[in-house]
Amino acid sequence: MAESDKNTILVVDDNQDAAYTVGLFLELKGYVVHTRNSGKDALEAVEALRPELVILDLAMPEMDGYETATLLRASHGPALPIIALSGYGQQEDIRRSSEAGFNAHLVKPVDFVALIDLLNSFLGIRSAN
Q: pTM higher than 0.85 for the full model?
């Protein structure tokens, strides 16, 4: 598969190990992955890299995932899928993520099968799975 044919994903988590782990798994599945560790860096990366999907932690300092998703939604509309991946999994957290513009909400530790299923649903037949 040519580099340009691969799906590009941005993984954002202030925990560098968590971002690296998810990113490495997705790279092993054939995706092109970029990681960032803050909401501000995520906004800049989306503009520069134009990923096809963003996986975003909720609990980050300075600019949390809710605010980051709201800003991404305001600038990119509904075309950019955003998946919450967080330790926050209560109904209130899921409701807030939906209101902020997330398309889906997964709870840590990540269920990699569920994550790949979501990627398949958002990225369709071009999935690297």
A: yes
